[in-house]
Amino acid sequence: MFEPNPPIDLSSGKYLKLWQGPQHPGITGNMSLELITRGDEVVDCKTHVGYLHRGFEKLMERRTFIQNFPVVCRIAVPEPTFNEYLYAAVVEELTGIESPPRAEWIRTLNLELMRLASYLMWLGGIGAAFGQSTVYQWTVTHRDYILDLFEEMTGARIYHMYIVPGGVRGRLPEGFEDRCRDVLNRVEKLLHDVEKVLFNNVVFKTRTKGLGHIPKEMVDPYGITGPNQRAAGFSRDLRKDAPYLVYDQLEFDLITATESDTYARSWVRYLEMHEGIRMLRQCLDRMPQDGPFQAKMPNVLHWEVPAGETYIKAECTRGEYGYYMVTDGSEYLRRVHVRGPSYTHAIALMEKLAVGTNIADIAGLMVSLHTYPPEIER
Amino acid sequence: MANAIQLLADFGRNFTLSDIREQRVDLAFCKAPKEQAVRLIRELRDDAGYTHLVFLTNTDYIEQGIFTLTYMLHNYDARHTLGVHVDLDRNAAEMESIHNLWAQAATYQRELREMYGIRFPGSPRLDEDFCLEGWDQIPPMLKEFDTAAFSLERFHSREGRGSVDPSEHMKTLLYPTHSDEPSSGGS
Fold first, then answer.
1. Tens digit of pLDDT for each residue in A257-316?
2. Is A222 at the interface with chain B, CB within 8 A?
3. Cβ–Cβ of B52/A334 closer than 8 Å?
4. Cβ of residue A1 closer than 8 Å to a chain B Cβ
5. What CATH number did the domain enclosing B66 receive?
6. ipTM
7. pLDDT digits (tens, 9 = 90+) for A89-101
8. Which CATH class for the A56-377 domain?
9. In A, which residues are within 8 Å of B100 by CB distance?
């Protein structure tokens, strides 16, 4: 499966080694690509990570279960909520706690809002990577509207620490639903504008169609999940295949494509944003307005998590995100492993796709894979 | 997948599987001997539909002197996930590489080499730095590696900063009457 690249003699004068990152506008987060080029063509690529390594998994082994909440949300900066949900879900499964229905709806709302915010950031990134900085300004502004909603819902814009074992920390604020609908309307209008200026733009189309093609037969051997997989024609989504929270009660379509290039991956994500808005509106319309938002829980200082082992996963914007946890009955967990889709998308896959690509398209290719380095180096 | 246990029982005719356990209807675990594990994983991939390597990780059982590798595999058609455990001797941790089965496995193995010191002979770029550059301590994910002691030794503390033990702090907040001193609200 692993195919080594042919040897490259740097002293021959035919090649140039370039470092893209860790501080570079054409890189996603703090990682770097060690590129070897021949003329404009990339002939070898190595991904380097570690610039953000904070040892989350090790830190969590030394903290009690409740103390880990401020840690887990920092594992994926633009999308912390999935970490909160999954960490809470593994603790709940191992301790036999069930969160009440109202909390399950609020969690779903929270996760889908996070997905929309993360996609908006990504949409700006793919625009900027191909010279459309205006799109970036539009989308980041609209992401901020969603962060405003998070601020009033949870008290924090980025690291919410809102989803906890047994439910959520609080009910939705008065009038939240109306403000949320207003933001969704604004984002929806923005998306139509983005479709006109980005997806119908001839330069964007020319540069992205055919770029970074992922053959269907590469998907499983490279562990590709999420929109990168769906753009290659696979109808796989954990929200459909292994429904969690209230996804089995929501109506939404699975978006797929067949071209499996940068344009197809972008288009799949764009349509998924519309599906996300559709799901959010259903949550707002159908969410229970009363009932508990938190199961009856023991005092956090007296949590007892029995010995056990489990793996729980969710569909984040980039694909399969999962928490594997081993406990031994003590007040600390024995082991936690955070499975993020960037682990393979940014390393094995990126290193493969970069070869043969024009140096000017590397940034766009990378953004099209939608990767976050903290979930690689945990 | 209702017949995951049956599947493992069938595989058990050719492999010495133990600790077979169903955590949920869509998740099961089993343990395989080190010598048989890669052959088992290959057959699970090729013959049983477990084509997706979800992750490869390790758990350190320092008290028992073993590492337990976990190969998490997923079958998309059956919508079932299977964790295959393999015990390694902690003092001579070496395992056959699976980089020929999945492309991303080489990265997992490189990380396990760096973080736990486990060797995977033949795995590409195994000894290249993964996250840590110029690391000169024992592998940091080993249980005996003390992060707090490392930080105190490596970094100097800044004046004016204190620290509070979080559990003691919470006890002070929640049970002020049992505390010797009034709550300071942190530092």
1. 999 999 999 999 999 999 999 999 999 999 998 889 999 887 777 788 899 999 999 999
2. yes
3. no
4. yes
5. 3.30.460.80
6. 0.91
7. 999 999 988 999 9
8. mainly alpha
9. 1-2
